[in-house]
Structure formats: C-alpha cells, structure tokens
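Revision sheet: structure tokens.
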Amino acid sequence: MLAQDVLARLAAEQDDAVVLARKELDVTDPASVRAALAEHAPAVVVNCAAWTAVDDAETQEAAALAVNGTGPRVLAEACRETGAVLLQVSTDYVFAGDATAPYAEDAPTAPRSAYGRTKLAGEEAVLELLPDTGYVVRTAWLYGAGGGNFVRTMIKLEGVKDTLDVVDDQRGQPTWTRDLADRLVRLGQGALAGTAPAGVYHGTSAGETTWFGLTRRIFELLGADPERVRPTTSAAFTRPAPRPSYSVLGHDRWKDAGIEPIRGWDEALTEAFPALLAAERPEG
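Predicted:
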C-alpha cells in the first residue's frame, strides 16, 4: 500500500526508480541484497518490506523478527558498503502506548508486543550501522487506496451493517499513505542534498482522534448517519497483541530537515476519500 504511493510520488519527477517485490528480493538474504544494490546502484533505498500482522507476531515472533529486524540490518549493512541512504519505515508500537502527550522522536521506547519488539530491532540496526545515512520514519494508522486498511473496511461495513461498535479508548493519527510517501521522498532528497540530518522522524498526520471518531467521520463522508456508529472499549475486542491506548506522535524533528510535517488527518482523509471509496466500491 505504501510502496505503491512511494512509486507514484517518484514517477511524478523521475523515471529511474527501481521496485523489487518480495518474490524478486528477499531482504533477509545478504547475498541477494548485496547483488541487488550492486546491480542497480541506488542513491536511496526505501524499505517498505515489513511483517505487519500484529497478532500473528505474538506466536511467530522469530518469523516477524526475520523481516522486521534482520531485514533492515541486512539492508543497512549493504547500504554501508555502497554509501546508499536507507529510509526505514517503523511504527508507533515501539512505544508503550500509555503516554498522555505526543511521543517525541527521542522518547524512551518500550514495546509491549512482539510486533513492536521486532520493529524496534530494525530501528536499532539502521541507526547503529548508518549513523550518518540511516533514517527511521515511524508511522501509524495508515490507510490508502492500494491495500486493505481500517478506512476501507469501514466503508465496506457501512453498506452491510445497521450499526457498528467501534473502540473509543485508543487515540492516534490516521495517516494517508500518499502523504507519508511524499515525506519519504522529500526526506531522501534532503539526505542527498545534505539538508536532512539522519535519525528518527515521525511520519503521521497532525491532530488526533479515536477509532470511533474516525469511523464517524467516514460515515459523514459517505453521507451516512454517524449515529449508527457506537462507542465501545478495547475490552470488547480481545486480541493476542496489546494495542496502544495512546499512539500520538510528535513531529518536531521535521524542522531540522526544512520539511513541514504532515497536515491534519481530517483534511487528508477528505481529499483521499474519493479514491478510497472507488477502491472499495468500484461499482459506484
């Protein structure tokens, strides 16, 4: 989902971007990664490969770690050899999720799930091996037209459910993959120009809401009655992996790179909505 928007963003200004799908490149295989970088000689590598099945990671942590931890380490080692910049996409799950104010980029990490632990391993590898050319961009609550996500699911459910009970005790920042893709490309450009310091950035929309608040806004954009959406608590949905109750991230680091943070989540969702609706309800 994110990779599609990264490629679309790159296509708007250059035609030499190379995309390697999972079947073409195993990021956990050092020999394959080194060969790929030798063949294509990229100036910037954007790692969109990830194990994102949060609940499955609880029982398959070794497999998740291979993708989320070993993969970024292998990429970082190869980028160190060639001098390429590496952009590693990470997650809010590296935090405990119990804060009451936005997490700063340098806030202490304390993952409470296997998924969070494996993503933190990837972060640490990139920052350790590439102190001057490694970038970690944490994001959360992603949605886009190019894949399954919460917004598209709610669009679908609105058409088949009379009412929906949605969690109202988890706060976060719905983030459009197109907005994140733009910041990733601009951060890569800043890295090459020497205007964007390496390190950690937070790539989420401004503002905050709950899943309940987000769903009511989706219903409004559909022209449906938002009163059909009812609030509930996380306790009503028992899952293997704990969900952060507070996933709001701060964005102060962008000013160091001369790049404005992502806009407000509601403005972005309103602009993205026609494409999301068309993707979920192609019949119109």
